[in-house]
Structure formats: C-alpha cells, structure tokens
Amino acid sequence: MDGFTIVGRTFTSRLMVGTGKYPSLPVMRDALAASGAEIVTVAVRRVNLEAREESLLAYINLDKYFLLPNTAGCHTADEAVRTARLARAAGLSNWVKLEVIPDDGTLLPDPVATVEAAEILVNEGFVVLPYTTDDHTVARRLLDVGCATIMPFGSAIGTGQGLPNPERLRRIIELVDGRVPVVIDAGIGAPSDASLAMELGADAVLVNTAIAKATNPVQMARAMALGVQAGRFSYLAGRIPRTEVASPSSPETGLIAKESAPTTAKA
Q1: Which residues are annotated as catalytic?
Q2: Radius of gyration from C-alpha coordinates of the chain
C-alpha cells in the first residue's frame, strides 16, 4: 500500500489505532499487532510516567510503533496545553493528538478551544494532530494555524454510527487539498465505515472503540486493516459515477446479427 506523510515522516499503514477500552492489556497488544498499524495513540493521563514497566507502555513495542500521545480527558485549552507539555517533558513525544472535549456526555470537541490550544502548541514546536468536528470552517482555521493533520470525526466518539454525513467530510478533504493529511477520527463502527472514509479520499482513519469493544478485538483489527486497504485501492482505482439511468453491462456494438426468420413461400 502506498504511504502517507506527516511533517516528513512517512507511514505505510493508513490505519491508526487507539489503546483504550480493551478487555485486557494482552488483548490490546495482540490487536495492535493484527491491525498492522504503525501509529498508536495513548492518553497521557493513562500513562504512569514514573514507572513505565507497570503501565500500558510495557505492552507497546516502542521499536515497532510510533507513539502518539493524546490529551483525552482535557476539558479546556489550558488543560490540553499543560498535558501536551507534560508528555514532551517526560520524553514521550513532541507530537500530540489534541483533544479538547468539555462535555463528557456528548464527547464532542470544542472547536474554539481546540483552535486556541493548537495555535499555542504549534508556536511551541509541537506537531499537532487535532481532533475536530466535521465543520470545514474549523478545519480551515486549524490549517491556518499550522496543524500537521486535520482529524474530523465521522460521528461521536464510541457511537459506532459510522459516517452519516460523508459530504461534509468530502468538503473538508477538498478544502485541505493535500496540504496535510486528513484522518477520519471517531465514530467508525465497522470495516465498511473505514472503507467509505478512504473512498472519500481521506488519508487515514483512527479506530479505537470499534476494535477494542468488538466480541473478538484481534479479528476486528484484521478486518479494519482490510477495510482501509480496500477503500484506498477503490479511491485510487476511481469509482464509476452515480447515474439515474440504467446502462447495459454489455456493449451494443459488435453483436452478432440475429438471423432472419425463414420466409414461407406462398402457394
């Protein structure tokens, strides 16, 4: 599969995977391996920075995976900025998946606070990958402040509702126009959702709940990887346009002429 690049670093897998909600850390480890993902995101607030051998980092091979700290659990721009600084100071990364979610009931991102935090972090030298809404105006603002990706949701976190508004995502993809990768983040419930995201022209998808809460997370991780690949190949192949008029599969030219029925001589 062809790769995609974030600030000079190229990745071959277009599936990013989260590390929350798994039934156990060993299952998480096996699902990560099955997914073929290279980028693994981890909530800074879940990492024991004082004793890594006792934390989930003990189950993530840092020689194999690129660790992407995230600011999950932060309700304000200030909280998100402090959390990103803490992760960098602890040696995790200067990359950050920025999340500012004020309402734990809806888990919808705060667009204003996200842009505010993104601008501060970009100016401090962070590589910022912001989780945001499917509003193209917010996407434009995040692009303007220098974010390394744009990461609109497909639907609300953990709902598994898929992509109910694909045209809004398509509009963001067209707006960004290849300047940075567009990653569809949140709401994906099945491999078909991931495939649709890729068919729209997204550069990658990030999946957590749909894998972690599946009956068989390891098998679902494999399925998601295949869905992403199928969607990417479909996008590159170029689907046929939708029409309102049926069209025969077989061409009408070059057909063998029908034999004329024999004539009966008149008496």
Answers
A1: 97
A2: 23
